[in-house]
Design goal:
The protein is α+β, with helices and mostly antiparallel strands. It has a domain of 106 residues: Alpha-Beta Plaits (2-Layer Sandwich). 27% of the residues lie in helices and 17% in strands. Strands 2-3-5 form a three-stranded antiparallel β-sheet, with no helix packed on it. Strand 2 and strand 3 form a beta hairpin. 12% of the residues are buried.
Length: 175
C-alpha cells in the first residue's frame, strides 16, 4: 500500500514539475524587453545565428562526387535522387543531376556519413521558404558553385533560377 501511495505521489510531483516549467516559459513570452524574432535577429537582412553543429540545408561538392549512390541508399526517406552517366573513355560515372526533395528530408545527416569522398555535408542555412512544393526540390547540379558549396546562402532566388531550363535534356516534358 505504501508503494502505491509513493507511486501516486511521484506521478503528481512529476506532472506538477512539468506544468511549472511550462508556466514559467509561458510567462516569459509576456516580458516587456523580449521583442519579436525579427527584432532580435533582423531575420531577412541578416542570417539567423545557429549553433556550430546545426544541421541545416545540405552543401554539396559536385566536382568530387563519384555518383556512388551511397547517400541515397542511406537516406531513410528516399529524398535524394542522383542522375548519372557512364564516362565514355574511362571508368566511373559523371553526375548529371543531384536533387534533394526537402519536403521529405528530415535533416538526420545519415547521408553524410557513408560518402567516401565527403562531397555532401550539412550546411548552416536556416530557411528555404517557398510557395509551392516544386520549390522544395533542389537540384544541386544546376545551382551556381558558390551556392551549392555553401560559400553563399542557399536562397529561394537561386533555387528558382536553377529550375529554368535553357537547353532541356530530353526535349521538354511534353515531347
Amino acid at each position: 500500500m505504501l508503494d502505491w501511495l509513493a507511486n501516486i505521489r511521484n506521478a503528481v510531483m512529476t506532472i506538477a514539475h512539468g506544468m511549472w516549467i511550462t508556466l514559467r516559459y509561458w510567462l516569459k513570452t509576456y516580458q516587456d524587453g523580449r521583442g519579436t524574432f525579427t527584432e532580435q535577429f533582423e531575420y531577412p537582412e541578416k542570417p539567423v545565428p545557429v549553433m556550430a553543429r546545426y544541421r541545416g540545408f545540405h552543401r554539396f561538392d559536385l566536382t568530387t562526387c563519384i555518383a556512388c549512390d551511397q547517400c541515397s541508399k542511406a537516406c531513410p526517406v528516399d529524398c535524394i535522387y542522383i542522375g548519372k552517366e557512364r564516362v565514355e573513355n574511362g571508368k566511373g560515372f559523371k553526375v548529371t543531376g543531384f536533387t534533394i526533395d526537402y519536403s521529405k528530408c528530415m535533416f538526420c545527416a545519415l547521408c553524410v556519413e557513408p560518402c567516401p569522398v565527403d562531397c555532401i555535408f550539412m550546411g548552416a542555412t536556416h530557411d528555404l521558404s517557398c510557395y509551392s512544393r516544386d520549390g522544395c526540390l533542389v537540384d544541386f547540379s544546376r545551382l551556381p558553385l558558390n551556392v551549392s558549396w555553401g560559400r553563399s546562402t542557399l536562397n529561394p532566388t537561386a533555387v528558382a533560377a536553377s529550375k529554368v531550363l535553357i537547353d532541356p535534356v530530353h526535349g521538354g516534358p511534353n515531347q
